[in-house]
Specification:
transcription regulation, LysR-type_TF, single chain, 12 strands, rod-shaped, 44% helix, alpha/beta, 5-stranded mixed β-sheet, DNA binding, WH_DNA-bd_sf
C-alpha cells in the first residue's frame, strides 16, 4: 500500500504528464502538448518512476510502451483528472427561459404583501417554466428552515448569521401610520397628542400588544390605547375600515394597503427605530448560477417595487 511520503511526491503535474504520455506514447509530442521541453518531461517521468517504483514506460523503437503497472493505474488517474477538470470548469450560465422547476422564497407577511406579486409577475415573464413558492417565515426560524432547504433565501429582519450563512443588507424599513380618514377624522400631519389619544390596532404573530412604539411614547410621557391585536397584516385594512383607529406599520406594506384600500398614510409624530431588512442565504449557494440569478431578480424587483410605492428607501448597493 502506498504510504504518505510516496503520495506527497506525486503532484498534479506528474499525473498530467503520465496521462499525456499514455495518450501520445512519444516524449516529443507529449512535451509539446504540455508546453514543456523534453528535459522537463523526462525529469517528471523520472520522479514518477521513483515514486511508484516502476519503469511505467519502456522505449520500443521511436515510441514508448506502457508497463503492466502503467496500464493498471491509467484508468484511475484519468478518472481523477477528469473529476478535477469538472470541478474547476466554469459553470454554464443559468438560462431562466428554459429552466423547469421551483424558486422558493421565505418572507414575513408584510414584505410578502409588498414584493411577492411583482416578483411572481416578473418570474412569469423571464422563466415561464418556473413556479414561485412563497413560504411564511419569521426571523426566529429563518436560519433553521434555510438549512433544511425550505427556501432559497429569506427576506426578513434576521439575527446575526452563522458562519455558513450570508446576511446581505437590503434596506432600513421605517414605520408609517395608516388609518381610514372616513372613520378617524384627522388630517396629516398628526400631532403627538392626537397619535397618543386615538385607538390603536397592532400586529403581532404571538399576540403581544407592546412594541417599540410604546417605548418611544413612554419617553415623551404618553401612553396609547391598543384596542385590538391581529396576527397578520392582512387583517388590518378591514379592521381600520370598520372603526376609528390607527395602525403603525412598516412603510412598504403601509403604502400598499393605502393604494389597495383607499386608506390614509402619514409620518408618525415621533422618532421610531427603523428595522434592518436583510437577505439570508447559504454560503454554499453564493456562486450557484440558479440561486444567484434568483437573488438578483429579487433585488431588481424589490428596488422597483419600493420606488413605485413611494417609499423613501432603496435597496442597498451592498446587497448586489
Amino acid at each position: 500500500m502506498m504510504n504518505d511520503v510516496t503520495l506527497r511526491k506525486i503532484d498534479l503535474n506528474l499525473l498530467l504528464a503520465f496521462s499525456v504520455l499514455m495518450q501520445e506514447r512519444n516524449v516529443s509530442r507529449a512535451a509539446e502538448r504540455l508546453l514543456l521541453g523534453q528535459p522537463g518531461l523526462s525529469a517528471a517521468l523520472r520522479r514518477l518512476r521513483e515514486a511508484l517504483d516502476d519503469e511505467l514506460f519502456v522505449r520500443v523503437g521511436r515510441g514508448l510502451q506502457p508497463t503492466p503497472r502503467a496500464l493498471s493505474i491509467a484508468p484511475a488517474i484519468e478518472d481523477a483528472l477528469s473529476g478535477i477538470e469538472r470541478a474547476i470548469r466554469p459553470q454554464a450560465e443559468f438560462d431562466p427561459a428554459s429552466w423547469q422547476g421551483e424558486f422558493r422564497i421565505g418572507m414575513c407577511d408584510n414584505l410578502e404583501s409588498a414584493f411577492f406579486g411583482p416578483l411572481a409577475a416578473r418570474l412569469l415573464q423571464l422563466s415561464p417554466g418556473a413556479r414561485l413558492i412563497g413560504v411564511a417565515s419569521e426571523k426566529r426560524d429563518a436560519a433553521r428552515r434555510l438549512d433544511e432547504g425550505v427556501f432559497d433565501f429569506s427576506v426578513s429582519v434576521h439575527d446575526e448569521p452563522a458562519s455558513w450563512h450570508i446576511r446581505a443588507p437590503l434596506f432600513d424599513q421605517a414605520s408609517i401610520c395608516i388609518y381610514d380618514e372616513a372613520q378617524l377624522r384627522l388630517k396629516a400631519p398628526l400631532s403627538l397628542k392626537d397619535f397618543a389619544n386615538v385607538a390603536h390596532v397592532t400586529v403581532s404573530f404571538e399576540g403581544n400588544a407592546a412594541t417599540s412604539i410604546d417605548i418611544a411614547l413612554s419617553r415623551t410621557g404618553h401612553v396609547r390605547q391598543v384596542v385590538a391585536t391581529v396576527p397578520r397584516f392582512s387583517a388590518l385594512p378591514t379592521a381600520l375600515r370598520a372603526m376609528p383607529a390607527i395602525a403603525t406599520v412598516p412603510e412598504s406594506i403601509g403604502r400598499c394597503m393605502a393604494q389597495l384600500h383607499g386608506l390614509t398614510i402619514c409620518e408618525p409624530p415621533l422618532s421610531l427605530p427603523a428595522d434592518p431588512v436583510t437577505m439570508l442565504y447559504r454560503r454554499v449557494d453564493q456562486a450557484d448560477g440558479r440561486a444567484r440569478w434568483f437573488r438578483r431578480l429579487f433585488l431588481d424587483v424589490a428596488s422597483q417595487a419600493l420606488e413605485a410605492s413611494g417609499c423613501c428607501v432603496s435597496i442597498s448597493r451592498a446587497a448586489a
